[in-house]
Structure formats: structure tokens, C-alpha cells
């Protein structure tokens, strides 16, 4: 069990540095990844407006991230499973005194007194409240107010610059170029889709005497029993007091207790009345007064299947964000990593809720130990995130892996396209009506998370037949990142796929990144025709957001078996997923594709592919492998 390290801010007023640095010509440091859609720039921000500025300092030893993660995650490493402590990680990656000195001198040279500056104890961030006029002069930029037709407003700048001699010491600065592209929500969060034929009676009936009644209709109605049969899940947890499993939900999404009981009554009667353990992050509430698929679909789905597959393992609900602001990816990281928190961490005021806020919601910094497994079924188009923002967050996922946490993200439901089937313009990487360039999803493209795609039981088939890539209602998200380089653990598998299927490429030049980038997904699970309790009835939903908690549940069961035998959690699992030695632990998916952007997309084929990854888990084999590791 890892100890939560609480990190506070200390003043820089009493810290002596060398003489101020000479002034230098400013150079462009960061520009907006994509122009905001449907937002109009309406006015300049008032010069007296106070901005909560955060200067992210360049961390040391980032070149060691992949090596350190592999040392505790690669099955052939002598240090496998010997995860790092939070203190070791902070000490390894904290910025140097030279970096702190350079940035501090720049700010004080510009007229910001030293006693206004605050430094996090891990030395990762400098915070200062500054007027718009001060910041515009400091960053050689202009801040504007943007207005949406709904009346919502945001502020930001298109780009900003820093002195050339400081640039190497600055990771990113907030608030600046990050932008909430969708009114009313920080991210596109609807990852499941209902069918119009909502049903209200018993779901499964026996139509084929050759298989059990509860498996008769798995090609059209997926249940807990179907998933157990598909993947061979036959394990009851015994170390539930030592194991932990967290599921992230973003307010105003919230489960309804009655929906859980409706689902459990039909498919897990002994769980009626069981609830997740809520951890309310940044003023979160499990609201139940707004009831519709958009408000309850994701949470109901995640919890019904996560809890159902891992029972009697208690499941922690990481409910994030209040009703005033909602939240983003960085906010749930706040709760498990105090060093990433507001004012001394990675929160982005343009994509994440900033707390404390006007509604009185407190911030939640380092309030719980990271769960052994965390499942997140949310995402955003990678093109809407700047490289600095994405890389800073991705590094935090690597650190969680070093601590022993498995982070699972869904890959999206639009194949090679982005949300709402949006594709990129080949010339400027912007979303356009005529875009033809593939639009991958973040954070699934981060090489330090496990990205989960979707499969389906083909119509007319049974749980005993091979699955195909999901092509009912949704298409499994997959492809190649435009930000992250290919990690070493997947180089062999991806190179084999490229040699066999992309040489020569069937796509036009510029359709996707061919420069050796991170490929996804890593693994898949069924994502079609899930039966859930939703707003008092039973209905069918689809999505990689269904696949993610299923994979996370299987890893949770594997952790239970290891913990019960005196071992630790598996942590980052991608090295094992891609190891040729462990290929028999996966069901290879060789049918279907993930079309989008006016193309058929990629095809599922033998071995790893950018539709279903290495395939779906064969749970008994995967369990045996992980139990055999130290």
C-alpha cells in the first residue's frame, strides 16, 4: 500500500538565487492545438482581471520514464513488481535548482516580486496570481473572451512566448492556449449509445437447447453471464480487504441506485442493495435529479458491470467535479496525487475545473491512495490537446504505473475518426467538414495507459464462436497518435503489422501518422449490445466505454489472486500484453474494421492490429501467467 504524500506550497521569498538572468528575445513556446469550434472571440480580457498562473517547470530525468516503468513492469525484469514509492518518484523527476532559478529570475526581472511566488514542495510548479496586463507583457500575447451561442464564456490566448534562455526550463504555462471546445462540458463524455427499443421485461430467453438459457441471446444481449462465458471468467475474489478498484465518473454523470438494483435483480440477485464506495472529488455529488441516458448511462454501465464482474470486491467510485464546473482528466489525478493538484500541479483552467470555486466546492489534493486499477471511459480528440498538455499528463500516468496502478482508458466509438465522426484537415490538422485525416483519441494514445477497443459477437453466432471487431452502432477507436512516439514495448508487434498491411499503404499520403508513433488500442473486449438498467428500465448500449471496465475488472481479479498469494498488484501491464511469449493468453480477432473519415479504416487481422490490439483476454491463461510472475 502506498502512502499518500501531501505537498504544499512554499514561498520563494526567502530562497536566494544567483544574480538575475539577462533579458533575452522571446520565442514561441506553445500555440492552441485547434481553433475553438462554434466559439466567437468577443472582446479583450480586462487588464485588471486576475489570472491564477501556473508555470510548469521542466522535470529532470524524463528520459528515464520508460526505462523505470519497464524495470517494474516487464516480465523478464529482475525488479518486476517491485514498484516505486511516491517519495522515490518525486526525488527522481523534480526540476533542478537551475530550472527553478531561471524561471524565478525571469518572473522577478519582469517586475513580479519574489514574495508573490509560490513553489510546490516537489518543485514542479510555480504559482502566482497576476493581472492580465502583467501576463500579456510577460508572455507577449493577448487574452480574449470567447462566447458560445449558449451564452457560455471562456478566456485564453492563441499562443504565447517565453525568453529563449528560459524556454528549456518551462514545460507549459496555464491558463494560456488550452480551450474547452464544447459548451456545457469540458470533454465529450457520452461514450455509450442507446437503441430506441428500450425493453422493460426479462431480457434473456432460451431459444437454443444446445447452450444454457442465459447464454442463448448473447449476440444481441450481452450480460454478465455472456462475458464470463466469452472470456472464461470463473474466479471469486478472496482478498477484497487488501485489493482496490476505482471507476472514474465526471459530474453531472451519476448512477441511479434504482438502476443498479434493477440490473442486479435480473443478473446478480445477491448484489441488490450493494453500492460503490463514493470518493467525492472537488465538490462532487452523485446527483439523481437529472435523469436521462445522457446523465446516467455511462455511470450505470460502468458500475453495473465493474461491480458485477468483481463481486464481492468493493468498488470505489471516483466521482469528480461539482455541478457548477464539472471536471476533466486532471481533476481525478488531483485526488490520488497531491503533487498534480491545483496551484502546484497540472490542472488546466480551460479543460479542468479549478477548485476551490465560486460555488464553495473545495479542492481535493492527495485524498486517497491510488487504487490498484482505475477504469476511465471518457476521452477527447487528441487534436484538441496541445503536445505540452498531453505529455505532461501522460507522464503522470507513467508515474502511477511505477507506483503499481493499472490505468485503463477506452479508445472511442468512431473508428479512425474523432467525436461525432469528425476528421482532420490534412493541411492544418484542424477539424473541418471535408477533413480526411484520421483523428485519434486522447488519453488512449498515451503510451503509459492501457487502451481498450471493442469487439462483438457477430449476429447469429454464440459465445463459442470467434468475435469480430465491433461494427454494430459503433466502431472501435484505433490508429496512430499524432503526438506520442511509439513505445519500445509495442515496436515488434506494430512493425510486423505495418510490414504486412501498410507496405504499401492502402491510404492516401497524409491520412494518418506514419512516422513511428504510438499505436492503439492495446487490447479489446466486447462492446456491443450491453444490457443495463437505465432510468428504471432495461436497455441496450454500445461502446468501448463498456469494454474498458470489463478489462479493468479482469485485471482486478488477477490482482486479487496475486495479493492472496502474498504478491503485489500488476501495475502497468502493456509489456506483458505485447510479449510474444504471452500471445496464447489472448483471443486473436481477425474479422471487422473501424471505418471513418471516408475510408474503410484499418482491418482486424492476425496478430496486433489498430482495431482490436492484441485481441481479447483469455482469462484463465492470463491469470496463470500473472500468478507465475514474482
Automatic annotation (TrEMBL):
Q: Which residues act catalytically here? A: 298 (charge relay system), 302 (charge relay system), 545 (charge relay system)
Molecular function via GO: metal ion binding; serine-type endopeptidase activity; tripeptidyl-peptidase activity
Q: Name where it mostly resides.
A: secreted
Signal peptide residue numbers: 1-18
Q: What is its EC number?
A: 3.4.14.10
One GO BP annotation here?
proteolysis
Q: What is this protein called?
A: tripeptidyl-peptidase II
Annotated organism of origin:
Hypholoma sublateritium (strain FD-334 SS-4)
The root-end lineage is: Eukaryota, Fungi, Dikarya, Basidiomycota, Agaricomycotina
